[in-house]
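Pipeline run #58 for the internal structure catalog. This entry was flagged by the ingest filter as a single-chain record with no existing model, so it goes straight to prediction. Upstream metadata was stripped on purpose; only the residue string is passed forward. Reviewer on rotation: M.T. Logging verbosity set to normal.
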Amino acid sequence: MLVIVVYDVGQKRVGKVLKRCRKYLHWVQNSVLEGELTPAQIEKFKLDLGKVLDYREDSVIIYTFSHARYADRQILGVRKGGQDFIL
């Protein structure tokens, strides 16, 4: 599955959240990551991420697509991130 994750977390947890996300996905922009994961990997990712989140103030949105061909990505402006994964 194609997975896109966006997050808005407290400043104290930003580094921890990014580190956990990068174990599973590719960083593409500030607070945005994407990649291919199996359903089991998604569940493991959510459990791992939940260990550092404060559910009273943090927000994480996980978008899943059954296949990358159903998604299109266009970049306007500066390309950010450290990978060449292109949809």
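catalog note: Residues 17 and 52 are 7 Å apart (CA to CA).
catalog note: Strands lie at 2-8, 26-29, 32-36, 59-65.
status: ready for reviewer M.T.
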